[in-house]
Design a protein that fits this description.
The protein is an alpha+beta fold and about 260 residues long. The protein has four helices and 13 strands.
Amino acid sequence: MRMNLSSCFCTAVLLSSALASPSHAITGSRSAPSSSVAQSIVTVVAAGGGVCTGTMIAPNIILTAAHCIAPGTANRVIDYSSKPPALIAPQQVAVHPKYNAQSIAAHRATADVALLRLSAPMPGKSAAPLGLPRIPFTPVSRFTVVGIGSTIAGSDTGVGTVRAAPLAVTGQPGTLQVRLVDPQTQNKSAGMGACTGDSGAPAFEDQDGRSVITGVVSWSTAANNAAGCGGLTGVTPLTLYKDWIVKTARSWGAALP
């Protein structure tokens, strides 16, 4: 799900995409997130030009997927407020100790969450609140995935523009992994869903009149479980991992609830 481009081409693609007219869509979607949600979304770049989505959960702390984290301190975050946009190196990186890369490759459940700490707050960004998903999950459960990924599988089209996709729970989800689907297409034909570059994107749930982060995007498929986008969106819910996120953020000086 991480977009793999050459390291020299990655930044150029993202900058040109940011200047283009917004397409307002993760694959198949026609909706844009609220301004407050959009202001919490950031672009995370890994070694070799991999692109992922991250979310500000404190003025200088970003939540993303563990499989987006490059070895050592190779990750960068794009600051679009500077002219030209700048690459910011995180001061600290933390991957959940129970994360297993082989499980992600097989679309199995694992602790696919990670944090990045910046040396200073991101200009023009605001933090989104963390929460716990309402369980048990049912077919009427709804989540909105918000990311900066492409609108076409295998392409850089639309990368860098924040888009939203309201999705429904499908299958028989447990507390370790949730599979989301476009309620209109039900994974039978191409529909809304996360795509390349949306790994690490937040899954928001409306609770008591506000949008809270209750999961992180880990993988996607095309319709009928083929390779690609527009079928299923695999989300790692924060049910078992919010405590680790809060504890780690607090150890870095963040005042999370």
